[in-house]
Design brief:
The protein contains eight helices and 20 strands. By secondary structure, the chain is of the alpha+beta class. The protein starts with a strand and ends in a 6-residue tail after the last strand. Bound molecules: adenosine-5'-triphosphate. The site of adenosine-5'-triphosphate has 12 residues, from strand 2 and helix 1.
Length: 368
């Protein structure tokens, strides 16, 4: 179903503060979806409205066609995994997972088989008798997920699920969460401020900025075709150039005049007219560095610059390159060095180049 969870023109204010401002979006049944944005963008408020802890001032929330806007949390087909896991410290893992079913007075056999099945799913069967304090952070989180899933909610909300874990465990749990999601097939909605987390956990992401929805798309679309400077700079690193549209050329390419740099040819996304001011975005890893000017004619945009700073990261190196007033970030995969590219030293004069298809026109009105 394409619109399994529907957020329909939802707004919520706290006094003068508009936490969520007229947000509409749909999540598919069984999808892993993320609400992503910086601190204060309203993602937690949106999550709390889906869970039922907060009531919207305006708008509706539907699950499987049912309007749940006015239902209390316990009557919604929704459950939440909280950031701090909220486990009962005095109960065993097994009892923690059984708690919700016990409260709703399910038959003993149903509780037993449901809890066993969930502990098996999160691979904690052999730790069933332990207390939460005897578990690692990742294991505790898996208990919290099992406890939230055992009542078979139609939507599982996960609030910053990896924030409490260290880097190695976080990377491991990203994979683990994907496996759990695949096995249960429940609709998962993550809330996170971490773009890498959102990209690795979900098939689509809603990017929020100051309570408003900026863009909803698959991770690769957000990265490759951000519609605003905000999305472009929130999802990965980006070079921005302010310019003016010049003449249109064949196949939808557009020449853009960038003062102090030149006139690169880029893909126009159709919404641009001649002489219009605009912003051009190029990802650092799309920029090649060579000693000589690239010779493939018109199809390559090439500019000269001087390497100002270098940072080595093992798998890749980043360079800050000065070209007049412009400071440009380029990123080189080590594996590309064999393809004619160079690894310049600080102070070296280089050619930066990118293919017209790698330049994106984004809206000018948003400050990067
Ligand atoms: P964070 O990642 O820091 O939790 P967030 O993106 O989840 O941020 P929200 O917690 O939804 O953002 O908050 C959105 C805005 O609403 C913020 O300006 C916040 O201060 C405000 N806000 C949220 N909850 C309340 C509340 N209960 N009372 C007053 N203001 C609130």
């Amino acid at each position: 179903m394409d619109d399994f969870l529907v957020i329909d023109h939802v707004s919520k204010s706290f006094g003068p503060q508009r936490a969520v401002d007229d947000v509409s979006l749909s999540v598919r049944q069984g999808e892993a979806f993320s609400l992503l944005g910086p601190s204060g963008c309203g993602k937690t408020t949106l999550l709390r409205m889906i869970a039922g802890f907060e009531r919207p001032d305006r708008g509706r929330i539907l699950v499987a066609g049912q309007d749940i806007t006015a239902l209390p949390p316990e009557q919604r087909p929704v459950n939440t995994v909280f950031q701090n896991y909220a486990l009962f410290p005095h109960m065993s893992v097994w009892e923690n997972v059984a708690f919700g079913l016990r409260m709703s007075r399910r038959p003993r056999e149903e509780i037993r088989s449901g809890v066993d099945r969930m502990l098996d799913l999160v691979r904690l069967s052999e730790h069933a008798r332990k207390r939460p304090a005897q578990l690692s952070g990742g294991q505790r989180q898996r208990v919290a997920i099992a406890r939230a899933l055992v009542k078979r909610p139609q939507v599982l909300l996960l609030d910053e699920p990896l924030a409490a874990l260290d880097l190695k465990l976080r990377q491991h749990m990203q994979m683990e969460l994907n496996t759990i999601h695949e096995q249960v097939g429940t609709t998962f909605i993550y809330v996170t401020h971490d773009q890498g987390e959102a990209m690795s956990l979900s098939s689509r992401i809603a990017v929020l900025n100051s309570g408003r929805l900026e863009q909803v798309d698959a991770p690769a679309s957000l990265y490759e075709n951000p519609r605003s400077s905000f999305v472009a700079s929130f999802i990965g690193d980006a070079n921005f150039f302010t310019g003016v549209a010049q003449e249109f050329q064949h196949e939808g390419y557009l020449r853009v005049l960038i003062e102090g740099l030149g006139s690169p040819l880029v893909q126009s996304n159709g919404a641009v007219s001649a002489n219009q001011p605009l912003r051009l975005m190029v990802r650092p890893e799309k920029i090649s560095l060579t000693l000589a000017r690239p010779s493939s004619g018109d199809r390559v945009n090439a500019f000269r610059g001087i390497v100002e700073d270098i940072a080595y990261f093992g798998s890749h190196t980043r360079y800050r390159i000065r070209a007049g007033e412009h400071s440009i970030l380029a990123q080189l995969q080590r594996s590309r060095l064999s393809g004619g590219e160079i690894d310049p030293a600080r102070g070296a004069e280089v050619w930066m180049s990118f293919h017209p298809d790698e330049g994106r026109v984004v809206r000018l009105e948003d400050a990067a």
